Amino acid sequence: MFTESQFTVIAGAGPTGLTLARQLSRHGVPYRIVEKSPRPFDGSRGKGLQPRTLEVLDDLGLIERFLAAGGDYPEVLAHLPDGGTHRFRLDEPHEPTPAVPWPNMLMLPQWRTSELLADGVPVEFGTALTGLTPIDGGVRVTLDTGETVDARWVVGADGGRSTVRKLAGIGFEGETHEQERLFIADVRLTGLDRDHWHVWPGEGRSFRLGLCPLPGDDWFQLTAPPSPLSPAELVAAVDPSITVTEVGWTSEYRANMRMASRFRAGHVLLAGDAAHVHSPAGGQGLNTGIQDAYNLGWKIATGDSAILDTYEEERLPVAAAVLGISTRLHRLHAEGADDAMRRDDPVLRQLSLNYRGTSLAVERRPQPGPIRAGDRAPDAPLAGDRLFDRLRGPRFTLLAFDWTGPLPTLPVPVHHVSEAAGIYGTAGPTLLLIRPDNYVGCATHDVADIVAYLGRIGL
After folding, report:
1. Phi/psi at 362 (nearest 5 deg)?
2. With b meaning 16 or more CB within 10 Å and e meaning fewer, what string describes 359-388?
3. Phi, psi torsion values for 193, nearest 5 degrees
4. What secondary structure, in 3-state letters, does the chain show?
5. What count of other Cβ atoms lies within 10 Å of the Cβ of residue 238?
C-alpha cells in the first residue's frame, strides 16, 4: 500500500505490541520488537476479548484460532455466607446478527492471547530499551545490549511503567488508590466444578474469594483481597473440600487509573498500558490497547506526520472514555454494590466507539444514515460471502451502494454491495470509503470526495 520505509522499533511484546507488529508486517513496514522480559508472559491477567477486538482478530486472519482456544464466560455461582447459593450471569448471551457476527466476550487467558498473536513475530526477548535520542527524521534507540538503532518511529507498548513514556517526558495523569488492592493467582485445584465462575461473598457487601475456570486447560484464576494467607489457605478458608494442587503466576493489582497527557512526542508514540491504565473491571484495558495498535499501524505505514497526528486525535478521547467506564465499574466493586459484577452495558463491547468529527472522518451527505463517517463498518451478508471478507486486508476499500454511474480508475478495490444498504442505512447512490482499520473514512454521494480523500492520504 505504501512504499516508503518507516522502520519502527516497538518496545513491549504484550498484546498491544504484538498486534502492532502484525499490522506493520502486512503493510510491509520493517520493524524490531524488543521485550525486556526474558520469556513470554505466562499469566492469565486480562482474560476477556470484547466483540470489537474479535473483529480485529478476524481482519488479522486469526479469529478461528482464537475461537478454538477460548470459551464463553460461565454462569456465576455465588456461595453465600448462610450456606445458600445464587446464580447469575455477567451479561446474557447475545445471538449473532448479520451486522455483528461475534456479539459476546470471549474468555481467553492473556498468555494464550499473546501466544497466538506472537506466532511468526520475531520478538527479541531479554532486550530492554534504555535510551532515546532525537536525530534528524527519527530517533536513535539505545538497547541494554549496548546496540544503538536508528528508527523513524518508536512505539512504547511497554506497560504502565513505560520506559519509553518516561524517556519521552510524557506525563501520566490520574490516581493510584494504594488501599484498593486485589490478589490474583493462577491455580490448579481439585474438588470444584469448571462449569461456573465461583465467588464467595463475605458478610455485608464484602468479597472473600473468586475462582474462575480458564478455557483450554485446567487452571482457575483466583482473585481475593490481599492477605498473608497462601492461595491454598485462602481456598481452604472458604471450602476445605477444595484442594489447591499447583500455583502458577501471581500478582497484586493496585487500583491505578491513569492516562498519558499525550500519545505522541515527535517520533515517539505510546499505545496500550503505556498510554492508559485501567481497572480490570469491565475487561477494557487489553482490548483498548489492541485497538490502539490496529489504529496506529496503517498510519505509521503512510509515513505522513499529519496522518500520524490523528492517532492521538482519535485514540486519546476513546481511552479517556474507556477509562471513565472502567473506573465507574471499579467504584461499584469497591463500594460493594449489588450489581457490581454486571457487564450488560453495550458500550463495554466497544462496537459503538467511533471517530465522528475527527479530521479523517469526512461526512459529505446532507442526510447521513445511521452509519456515518468515523463509525465502525459493520458486517453484512453478501452473495457468496460476507462484507468482512471484502474488507479484510491492509488497504482502503470503496463500498458502492446502489451506484449505477461510472467510477474513475481508483487505487483501491471497489465493491458494489447494494444488498448491504439496509444495514448501512444508505439512501440512494452512496459511496463509503473504508479505512484499513475498518472504520468509515469518507461517506458521500459524489465520487470527487473520494478522489480528494485518497489524494490526501497519498493514494
Report:
1. -105, 105
2. ebbbbbbeebbebbbbbbbbbbebeeebbb
3. -70, 155
4. CCCCCCCEEEECCCHHHHHHHHHHHHCCCCEEEEECCCCCCCCCCCCEECHHHHHHHHHCCCHHHHHHHCEECCEEEEECCCCCEEEECCCCCCCCCCCCCCCCCEECCHHHHHHHHHCCCCEEECCCEEEEEEECCEEEEEECCCCEEEECEEEECCCCCCHHHHHCCCCEEEEEEEEEEEEEEEEEEECCCCCEEEEEECCCCCEEEEEEECCCCCCEEEEECCCCCCHHHHHHHHCCCCEEEEEEEEEEEEEEEEEECCCEECCEEECHHHCEECCCCCCCHHHHHHHHHHHHHHHHHHCCHHHHHHHHHHHHHHHHHHHHHHHHHHHHHHCCCCCCCCCCCHHHHCCCCCCCCCCCCEECCCCCCCCCCCCECCCCEECCEEHHHHHCCCCCEEEEECCCCCCCCCCCCEEECHHHHHHHCCCCCEEEEECCCCEEEEEECCHHHHHHHHHHCCC
5. 17
Higher pLDDT, 174 or 98: 98
Answer whether residue 330 shows pLDDT above 50: no
pLDDT of residue 345: 62
Q: Is the pTM of this model over 0.85?
A: yes
Q: What distance in Å separates the CA atoms of residue 53 and residue 41, rounded to the nearest whole number? A: 20
Q: How far is CA 387 from the centre of its chain?
A: 22
Neighbours of 320 (CB within 10 A): 11
Please, what is the Cα angle at 139 between 138 and 145, to 5 degrees? 145
What is the average pLDDT score of the chain? Answer: 92
pLDDT of residue 333: 46
Q: Are 96 and 374 a contacting pair, CB within 8 Å?
A: no
Q: Which of 384, 390, 394 is nearest to 432 (CA)?
A: 390
Query: Which residue in this structure is represented by grid cell 510491509?
Result: 28
Pull the grid cell for residue 399.
463500498
pLDDT at 4: 46
Q: Which three cell numbers stand for residue 259?
A: 492516562
Residue 246 has pLDDT above 60, yes or no: yes
- The pLDDT assigned to 346 comes to 64
pLDDT, tens digit (0-9, with 9 covering 90-100), for 178-210: 566 889 999 999 999 999 999 999 887 778 999
